[in-house]
Amino acid sequence: MIWPVLGSLSAVPALDRPDLLSDPVALALTAMDPADAALIGVAEIDPTLADTAEFCAAYGSPLDGSANCVVVAGRRGETVRYAACLVLATTRADVNGLVRRRLDARKASFAPMDEAVSITGMEYGGITPIGLPADWPVLVDAAVVAAPAVVVGSGVRHSKLALPGELAARLAGAEVVEGLGR
């Protein structure tokens, strides 16, 4: 598969390489509409280059073609609600405004690394909007949906996924939010 957003990397259909996916991601891809799953490519990378800036520099991927997925924990009293936010790497998620209100929380912050890894079943630096817990909202910035293609994590640090931006709006739990990335 040819994905210019992956820079110098070549991709194969993600379902053809489950060894390059975390278990939750592989399971979610097999549960997707086959036509949508076929639109997602996976490329193997050096796991030390999984962080967005290093990945883009090493492989020639445009920074505005990368989307970061962050896990947010919103708290109101003893209740904790989680959400994933998918924003372009050139922006930051509006955690204390839009996300906090969407979670009906008094306080919202990025979930601690150990907690995010434990509850997603994904590696830190590879967390992706595909395969997250079913009861989580996946808040997707409208700019991600408008992008021709984006690079996201694969659930592991040794690969990346490429998908059409508009497909992000059809992922399980997805809610498109205008202005999520600032």
Keywords:
182 residues; 5-stranded mixed sheet; 4-stranded antiparallel sheet; single chain; alpha+beta; YbaK protein
CATH class category name: Alpha Beta
Write down the CATH topology: YbaK protein
Rg from C-alpha positions? Answer: 15 Å
Distance between the termini: 31 Å
Annotation field: number of helices: 6
Fourth CATH level, the homologous superfamily: YbaK/aminoacyl-tRNA synthetase-associated domain
* H and E order: EHHEHEEHEHEHEEE
Major beta sheet summary: 5 strands, mixed
Shape-level CATH architecture? Alpha-Beta Complex
- Unreliable runs, pLDDT <50, ≥5 residues? none
Structural class: alpha+beta
Mean pLDDT: 96
- DSSP strand count: 9
Percentage of residues in helical conformation:
10-25%
- Please report which band the strand proportion falls in: under 5%, 5-15%, 15-25%, 25-35%, 35-45% or over 45%: 25-35%
Strand order of the largest sheet: 5-3-4-6-9
Pfam family, one: tRNA_edit
Protein name: YbaK/aminoacyl-tRNA synthetase-associated domain-containing protein
InterPro entries: YbaK/aa-tRNA-synth-assoc-dom
Structural overview:
The protein has 182 residues and is of the alpha+beta class. It has helices spanning 23-31, 34-37, 52-59, 95-102, 113-120, 142-146, and strands at residues 12-13, 41-44, 67-76, 79-88, 107-110, 138-141, 150-153, 159-163, 174-177. It is 23% helix and 26% strand. The radius of gyration is 15 Å and the shape is globular.
Outline the fold blueprint.
Blueprint: E1 12-13, H1 23-31, H2 34-37, E2 41-44, H3 52-59, E3 67-76, E4 79-88, H4 95-102, E5 107-110, H5 113-120, E6 138-141, H6 142-146, E7 150-153, E8 159-163, E9 174-177
Parallel strand pairs: 4-6, 6-9
Antiparallel strand pairs: 1-2, 2-8, 3-4, 3-5, 7-8
